């Protein structure tokens, strides 16, 4: 998982998955949605929605890192490294 900001300076999260994809999430921390729990001991919140799914790995994504300027993400799986550029985040 990597966090940064999009071109409009809004929070952005990128997650890697065992389904061999990266998911780019738009986060809305101001308008979070409460999610009910079964035992009401812990309150969870939905704070984002998937924006884009990026595919290209032949095995599950094992790591990723976002540049400080949030314009690039490098992801790795067993045997392949991908570079995702700015246009995917806009």
Description:
By secondary structure, this protein is mostly beta strands. It has one domain (2-35, 44-89). 0% of the residues lie in helices and 52% in strands. It has no helices and 9 strands. The chain has strands spanning 2-5, 11-16, 21-27, 33-35, 44-46, 48-55, 61-66, 73-77, 80-84. It has a 4-stranded antiparallel sheet, with no helix packed on it. The chain is globular. The two termini are 19 Å apart. The relative contact order is 0.26. The model has no long low-confidence stretch (mean pLDDT 81).
SSE inventory with pairings:
Layout: E1 2-5, E2 11-16, E3 21-27, E4 33-35, E5 44-46, E6 48-55, E7 61-66, E8 73-77, E9 80-84
Antiparallel strand pairs: 1-2, 2-3, 3-6, 4-5, 7-8, 8-9
Can you count the beta strands?
Answer: 9
Alpha carbon gap, first and last residue: 19 Å
- C-alpha geometry: globular
Query: Which class do the helix and strand fractions yield?
Result: mainly beta
Low-confidence stretches: none
Rg calc: 15 Å
The ordered string of helix (H) and strand (E) elements is EEEEEEEEE
């Amino acid at each position: 998982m990597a966090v940064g900001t999009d071109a409009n300076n809004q929070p952005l999260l990128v997650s890697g998955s065992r389904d061999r994809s990266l998911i780019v999430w738009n986060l809305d921390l101001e308008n979070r949605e409460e999610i009910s729990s079964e035992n009401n001991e812990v309150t969870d919140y939905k704070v984002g929605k998937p924006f884009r799914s990026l595919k290209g790995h032949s095995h599950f994504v094992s790591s990723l890192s976002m540049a400080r300027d949030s314009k690039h993400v490098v992801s790795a799986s067993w045997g392949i490294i991908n570079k995702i550029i700015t246009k995917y985040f806009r």
